[in-house]
Design a protein that fits this description.
Anti-sigma_ant, alpha/beta, 4-stranded mixed beta sheet, Transcription Regulator spoIIAA, STAS_dom, 109 residues, STAS_dom_sf, 34% helix, globular, Anti-sigma factor antagonist
Length: 109
């Protein structure tokens, strides 16, 4: 289940909007992707120009459902001229993003 966390280091005062941070642990798969999507929607509703960080450092597995939620987040944030930061991306998630050619849409740290 997504958890709130503190703003990414060095990012807390970048601009007028606060950073909204979600930390996800475990498997980001078809059974759990909906929970992350709901948490993303809740955070996006908090500001007109969202700044959202998703910590994926403790994600052990990500399937196409999980990846689709990350793509959803990127598109929704960009529609509102916001910023999406994927932080502490696990090796498995990084490899999936790169293999799918999504590193332009989902900027990796």
């Amino acid at each position: 289940m997504p958890q709130q966390a503190e703003a990414p280091p060095g990012r807390a005062s970048d601009g007028p909007e606060p950073w909204h941070v979600l930390r996800f642990r475990g498997e980001l798969d078809c059974a759990r992707a909906g929970g992350l999507r709901r948490a993303i929607d809740e955070k996006l509703a908090l500001s007109d120009r969202p700044r959202l960080a998703i910590d994926l450092g403790d994600v052990s597995f990500c399937d196409s459902y999980g990846l689709s939620v990350l793509v959803y987040a990127a598109k929704k944030v960009r529609e509102r001229d916001g910023t999406l930061l994927l932080s502490s991306v696990s090796r498995q998630v990084r490899m999936l993003i790169e293999r799918c050619g999504l590193q332009r849409l989902l900027t990796l740290p």
